[in-house]
Write a structure and sequence with these properties.
Blueprint (H helix, E strand, L loop, with lengths): L23 H18 L3 E8 L7 H18 L5 E6 L2 E7 L3 H15 L10 E8 L6 H17 L5 E3 L6
Parallel strand pairs: 4-5
Antiparallel strand pairs: 1-3, 1-4, 2-3
Helix pairs in contact: 2-3
Protein backbone atom coordinates (compact mmCIF):
# COMPACT_ATOMS: atom_id res chain seq x y z
CA UNK A 1 0.00 0.00 0.00
CA UNK A 2 1.14 3.50 -0.72
CA UNK A 3 1.04 6.22 1.96
CA UNK A 4 -2.31 7.41 0.63
CA UNK A 5 -3.76 3.95 1.25
CA UNK A 6 -4.23 3.06 -2.43
CA UNK A 7 -2.74 0.07 -4.17
CA UNK A 8 0.68 0.66 -5.84
CA UNK A 9 0.75 1.14 -9.60
CA UNK A 10 1.70 -1.92 -11.63
CA UNK A 11 5.13 -1.79 -13.24
CA UNK A 12 3.60 -3.24 -16.40
CA UNK A 13 3.05 -0.61 -19.06
CA UNK A 14 -0.37 0.29 -20.38
CA UNK A 15 1.03 1.39 -23.75
CA UNK A 16 2.35 -0.48 -26.74
CA UNK A 17 6.05 0.19 -27.40
CA UNK A 18 5.67 0.25 -31.21
CA UNK A 19 2.56 2.38 -31.66
CA UNK A 20 2.84 4.34 -28.42
CA UNK A 21 -0.92 3.82 -28.00
CA UNK A 22 -2.65 2.54 -24.88
CA UNK A 23 -3.23 -1.21 -24.90
CA UNK A 24 -6.33 -3.39 -24.81
CA UNK A 25 -6.72 -3.14 -21.03
CA UNK A 26 -7.04 0.62 -21.28
CA UNK A 27 -9.38 0.22 -24.25
CA UNK A 28 -11.74 -2.01 -22.27
CA UNK A 29 -11.86 0.50 -19.41
CA UNK A 30 -12.48 3.30 -21.88
CA UNK A 31 -15.31 1.42 -23.62
CA UNK A 32 -16.95 0.67 -20.27
CA UNK A 33 -16.78 4.33 -19.24
CA UNK A 34 -17.90 5.72 -22.60
CA UNK A 35 -20.85 3.34 -22.93
CA UNK A 36 -22.00 4.40 -19.47
CA UNK A 37 -21.72 8.04 -20.52
CA UNK A 38 -23.56 7.39 -23.81
CA UNK A 39 -26.35 5.67 -21.87
CA UNK A 40 -26.62 8.64 -19.49
CA UNK A 41 -26.58 11.28 -22.24
CA UNK A 42 -28.65 9.25 -24.75
CA UNK A 43 -26.01 9.69 -27.45
CA UNK A 44 -24.72 7.10 -29.91
CA UNK A 45 -21.27 5.59 -29.67
CA UNK A 46 -19.32 3.50 -32.18
CA UNK A 47 -16.44 1.09 -31.93
CA UNK A 48 -14.15 0.51 -34.91
CA UNK A 49 -11.76 -2.43 -34.83
CA UNK A 50 -9.19 -1.99 -37.61
CA UNK A 51 -6.81 -4.78 -38.63
CA UNK A 52 -3.84 -4.62 -40.98
CA UNK A 53 -4.52 -7.10 -43.78
CA UNK A 54 -2.10 -10.08 -43.93
CA UNK A 55 -0.20 -8.73 -40.90
CA UNK A 56 1.13 -12.19 -39.97
CA UNK A 57 2.74 -12.49 -43.41
CA UNK A 58 4.85 -9.35 -42.96
CA UNK A 59 8.53 -9.46 -42.03
CA UNK A 60 9.02 -8.24 -38.42
CA UNK A 61 10.44 -4.85 -39.43
CA UNK A 62 7.50 -4.32 -41.81
CA UNK A 63 5.04 -5.18 -39.04
CA UNK A 64 6.37 -2.38 -36.85
CA UNK A 65 6.35 0.04 -39.78
CA UNK A 66 2.78 -0.91 -40.73
CA UNK A 67 1.58 -0.39 -37.14
CA UNK A 68 3.27 3.02 -36.99
CA UNK A 69 1.74 4.06 -40.33
CA UNK A 70 -1.76 2.96 -39.28
CA UNK A 71 -1.36 4.66 -35.89
CA UNK A 72 -0.37 7.94 -37.53
CA UNK A 73 -3.21 7.74 -40.07
CA UNK A 74 -5.81 7.04 -37.38
CA UNK A 75 -4.51 9.83 -35.15
CA UNK A 76 -4.58 12.28 -38.05
CA UNK A 77 -7.98 11.14 -39.34
CA UNK A 78 -10.07 10.72 -36.20
CA UNK A 79 -11.12 13.43 -33.76
CA UNK A 80 -9.08 14.32 -30.70
CA UNK A 81 -12.02 13.22 -28.54
CA UNK A 82 -11.94 9.67 -29.97
CA UNK A 83 -9.94 7.03 -28.09
CA UNK A 84 -7.47 4.94 -30.12
CA UNK A 85 -5.74 1.88 -28.66
CA UNK A 86 -3.80 -1.14 -29.83
CA UNK A 87 -5.84 -4.26 -29.02
CA UNK A 88 -3.24 -6.78 -30.19
CA UNK A 89 -0.56 -7.16 -32.86
CA UNK A 90 -1.76 -5.51 -36.05
CA UNK A 91 -5.16 -4.56 -34.61
CA UNK A 92 -6.07 -1.06 -33.49
CA UNK A 93 -9.44 0.01 -32.15
CA UNK A 94 -11.18 3.32 -31.66
CA UNK A 95 -14.12 4.47 -29.58
CA UNK A 96 -15.92 7.12 -31.60
CA UNK A 97 -17.86 9.41 -29.29
CA UNK A 98 -21.28 10.68 -30.34
CA UNK A 99 -21.05 8.70 -33.61
CA UNK A 100 -23.85 6.83 -35.35
CA UNK A 101 -23.44 3.88 -37.71
CA UNK A 102 -23.24 6.19 -40.73
CA UNK A 103 -20.54 8.29 -39.07
CA UNK A 104 -18.57 5.17 -38.10
CA UNK A 105 -18.61 3.88 -41.68
CA UNK A 106 -17.51 7.31 -42.89
CA UNK A 107 -14.63 7.40 -40.35
CA UNK A 108 -13.43 3.87 -41.23
CA UNK A 109 -13.55 4.69 -44.93
CA UNK A 110 -11.53 7.87 -44.32
CA UNK A 111 -8.87 5.77 -42.56
CA UNK A 112 -8.80 3.30 -45.43
CA UNK A 113 -8.54 6.10 -48.04
CA UNK A 114 -5.89 7.99 -46.05
CA UNK A 115 -3.71 4.86 -46.05
CA UNK A 116 -3.87 4.90 -49.85
CA UNK A 117 -2.21 8.31 -49.78
CA UNK A 118 0.82 7.13 -47.78
CA UNK A 119 4.06 5.74 -49.22
CA UNK A 120 3.07 2.40 -47.62
CA UNK A 121 -0.05 2.14 -49.82
CA UNK A 122 1.39 -0.80 -51.78
CA UNK A 123 1.85 -2.82 -48.59
CA UNK A 124 -0.55 -1.64 -45.89
CA UNK A 125 -4.28 -2.12 -46.32
CA UNK A 126 -6.84 -2.59 -43.58
CA UNK A 127 -10.14 -4.27 -42.86
CA UNK A 128 -12.52 -2.96 -40.22
CA UNK A 129 -15.43 -4.12 -38.11
CA UNK A 130 -17.88 -1.60 -36.67
CA UNK A 131 -20.51 -1.77 -33.95
CA UNK A 132 -22.65 0.97 -32.46
CA UNK A 133 -24.41 1.62 -29.18
CA UNK A 134 -27.39 1.26 -28.90
CA UNK A 135 -28.20 -0.33 -32.28
CA UNK A 136 -25.91 -3.37 -32.06
CA UNK A 137 -25.39 -3.81 -28.32
CA UNK A 138 -26.25 -2.16 -25.02
CA UNK A 139 -23.28 -3.39 -22.96
CA UNK A 140 -19.60 -2.56 -23.48
CA UNK A 141 -18.45 -6.20 -23.72
CA UNK A 142 -21.19 -7.04 -26.22
CA UNK A 143 -20.37 -3.96 -28.29
CA UNK A 144 -16.72 -4.96 -28.60
CA UNK A 145 -17.72 -8.56 -29.40
CA UNK A 146 -20.03 -7.34 -32.17
CA UNK A 147 -17.25 -5.17 -33.65
CA UNK A 148 -14.86 -8.15 -33.56
CA UNK A 149 -17.47 -10.34 -35.25
CA UNK A 150 -17.96 -7.70 -37.96
CA UNK A 151 -14.16 -7.60 -38.43
CA UNK A 152 -14.12 -11.38 -38.82
CA UNK A 153 -16.78 -11.06 -41.53
CA UNK A 154 -14.78 -8.31 -43.26
CA UNK A 155 -11.63 -10.47 -43.26
CA UNK A 156 -13.52 -13.43 -44.71
CA UNK A 157 -14.74 -11.27 -47.61
CA UNK A 158 -11.24 -10.17 -48.62
CA UNK A 159 -8.78 -7.38 -47.86
CA UNK A 160 -9.79 -3.75 -47.54
CA UNK A 161 -13.34 -4.42 -46.35
CA UNK A 162 -15.44 -2.53 -43.82
CA UNK A 163 -18.33 -4.41 -42.24
CA UNK A 164 -20.96 -3.27 -39.76
CA UNK A 165 -22.34 -5.55 -37.06
CA UNK A 166 -25.65 -7.17 -37.81
CA UNK A 167 -28.73 -6.02 -35.95
CA UNK A 168 -30.45 -8.96 -34.28
CA UNK A 169 -34.19 -9.09 -34.88
CA UNK A 170 -36.17 -8.98 -31.64
Amino acid sequence: MTPSGSQPMSAESLSDPVSGLPDGRFFQLSVDRKVALARRTLKPLAIAVVEIDDFAGFAPYLRDHAVRVLTRVMQNTLRDSDTICQLRDGVLAAVLDDTSETGAVWAADRIRRALLETPAREVVTVSAGLACYPSHAMAADDLLSEAELALSTARSLGPGRIEVAAIDPL
